[in-house]
Amino acid sequence: MASKWTKTVFRLSKIPSSITVYHELAVLLASATDRFPASSITVYSLATTLVPWENPPTKVATLMFKETPPFLASATPDEAEWQLPITFLDEAHVLVLDHHFWGMTPLNDVAGESPSADCIAISGLAGHAFGSWAPRGEDRTFMWIRDQVPKEVPGARAILYGYKASLLNSDSFQGIEDLAIGLIAQMKAHGLDESSQPLIFIAHSLGGIVLKSAVRKLANAEDNFSERRLFSRLKGAIMFGVPNLGMEHNHLLTLIQDKYVKNIVHDLSILSGKSGYLYALEKSVSGIAEMRQLRFFWAYETDVSPILDVSLPHDDPIRSQTKKMTGPPVVLVDPGSATAYRVTDDKKQKTVTPVTGDHSTIVKFTRSDHRVRPIIHELRNYCGLPRELESNHSSFPLPVRRPITSRGRDESPPANVRKSEYDQFQELIASLFSPELHLRQQAIADRFKFTCEWILENEHFVSWLRRDEGVFWINGKPGSGKSTLMKFLLQHPGVHDYGHDFSSQVTRITANFFFNFRGTSLQKSLHGLLQTVLHRVLGALQSSDNAKPIIDHLLATLPKSTPGRTWWTRERMEQALRTVLNQKLAPVSITLFIDALDEFDGTPEHILHFLNYLTRRPPASLTRTKLCFSSRPWDIFTEAFGKRPNLAVQDFTENDIRYYCTSTLASALSNKSFIKPLADEIARRASGVFLWVTLVTKELANESSNATSLEPLLELVDGLPTELENFYNLIIQRIPGNERLRTYALLEALIRAHNSEEFGIKHLYKTTLISHCQTYGECREALLRARFSDTDEVLVQARKKMLYWSGGLVSVGADAKVQLIHQTAYEFVVKLDFRDRLLAEVSRTVSENGHAFHFKTILLAEGDKGYGPPLSITRLIELPLVDYSHGYMAEQTTGQRWWTFLNSLPRKQFDHLNQRLEIRFERYQKGFSKDAFKIFSPIGLAVSFGLRLYLEDLVDQAPEPFASAECPDFLLHLIAVQFDTMYQENPHY
């Protein structure tokens, strides 16, 4: 046992921050054991922990023992971690010693405030986080990632990532996906999403599959700031012996150490072919890498490796006990699989390299190992890249990477008639109006009968109402009813009458904004808030005789221009609002109600800065402002407003909940004696979360029609999860398995919708029906089978299907717009593991997301008599450009390739699309023939929509794809030639 521990590399964590030299640490650790000399401890690295909330941060070290310490002499073989109490500088500490190396282990500190890059090493599924990279043999004093990389790649911080492979089991395939989510969670927990410096990975064997799965999840993360920021750091990875296209059955068993996992073996097996998990993963990640300019460097083995002897039955005790590599030596991962056949592609030769050694030793570099030189060279190249990533758009010229815009959105048309300043100001105000900015308030449920009235008796709130200045914060748990309460306040006439003085000449204005993270970009942005508030404020000032001096001042200070939506830039809106807030011409009182600050699509600090500006007026200003806002009780809001007047909604709603339950159950239960005990039990378990109450009462309504006793109904209530996320999970698990692909398509399309038209029930219904289709013909057949038509009759069927497919997670408003029932439902759907939870094994080969589903619907647009939104000609100028970016975004987020679908479009479909696209080319038509800008081929669509991967596939499959005979469009030919030239100069694009 003693020899084992002296050959083991240990990790020591929770080291006091003041320890700075190796000898100090050895002395400190020796003090934790009786009569154990510090000279018997050799420390090889000492680095600051990555845990962001430690203050001061502790340190972590790697070390070895020359002699076995007493506490290890009696350790059992299964022990891998020990807690060692010590006293240092008169303070008690507990050091943690382990040899499993799970989690993140930094190996070095970098001079200066922060490293210039982070380099994370991920071992294979059966590998050890440290030992996988260390040379074989007795000498464990050198490990190249720890001892060589920090020296030869200055500024880089080397980090090991260790994980347990016990998630792999015979019941579920989700081992790989779970490990990928675990990797992302560990990076976030260690603050790696907070930096902007390059992030580089070194991955070995099946660890590379885990990394690729994580990359795909991060690229596809929707509206999650942390994941987006983490992905933006990624520069690329060096992949050693990664079985990108699968392995032979018995070779795979060797890598997972004979943990016979049926689904793992099948899906990572080379036999799964193009329909398998690995092929879909490789196709997706390679596309994402091309679109996001990520560089992967592929290293493959040249020597054979011993493998498990699979001639014995799996349950044979000799095989299970020995696990000896007694099978015939083979190349475990052949060059084709290790490089996804890039090794045979002349254009991609620079991204591959052979490494002498077998599957294990290709990452076990020794001191002065010549094999490591290309790897170090590649790492230095990664770290030498620009510190800020390029734009998410590709490097194509502008006409290629974005759809061409119309004149109506870029410049104001010349005015035919000179209008008065008053008329122009009227138009300026009108141009600020956008229906989508009011959709969220309209969609919020009205209060139930007489609920919410308690707030008008709250002395702190009433006191705020009576004043002309101040802040009031309405906070509460998710689902507690904050938005419904805010809507009630705005609708209640008494709220607006408080403090009103008929003798006063003060112009009183009430403005509001409801943030909606599930909605369009305007609905969740500061731009949308500015636009809404300014529209209301300017409109009220114009209708007030007392405020005429302010209007005159605005007309004198704002830039002269023909009014129009594009005239209102962000800077001009801010200038106009500043003018009103700081004016000294007439008394004005502005009351602002802003709902759901936690749904602002930006940093909380940003919105807080804006709120502080709104409420802190210069002494000389005649404008007074007061603000009521709602949000979840995040720490940053509590710190900023916790000492201001506020209330927590859940503390006041128990009576409202009982009233709601009593009234709702009265119409659902035939036995009225059940109502009170059920209402009491629901109120007790709800903890003030009104959304949970509505979900539970629906469950009771569905189950209570045949109830003859109270006990089963109480058991039903007690058996339902109290956490909303668990409740949502219960809902999706009830959806029939054969309908879940529809569920996935609907919810994905909903969270990727860009404008109000795409939230329409008819558009989403059509998008869901064709989501699985891979060609134009398949789409038409799917719509025919579903009897889809562009008529109002389809709305009834669509509403019914939407609710069925979603299990009730979506609602359909009176305006035929679809939304998730609550922000918590949105947060549930955009979780990285949602697809795996919903689709289970089917998720292995599903790679398309909502962007792809929307784009298919766009390409299916018919003529004037056909489906209108989102490509209706009459609305084209007003619709956001992002309508046309779904295809491009599908490439960006999933590596989607449109080759098959675009090539399946019939000629008549190009005629339909030209009707909707011709107005976008109007400004460029001077000097060209009438048909110069019409699109006659998939190439034209690919250029117009910026589909880079389609064009790259075209270059790969056709020697001269842009020849004039194949590309008659004049402008398109110019663009194509430019692209072709760029490709020849930069073949790695």
TrEMBL record:
Residues 451-632 form the Nephrocystin 3-like N-terminal domain. Residues 394-418 are annotated as: Disordered. Residues 407-418 have a biased composition (Basic and acidic residues). Residues 146-252 form the DUF676 domain. InterPro entries: AB_hydrolase_fold, DUF676_lipase-like, NPHP3-like_N, P-loop_NTPase. Belongs to the putative lipase ROG1 family. This is Uncharacterized protein. Gene3D superfamilies: alpha/beta hydrolase (3.40.50.1820), P-loop containing nucleotide triphosphate hydrolases (3.40.50.300).
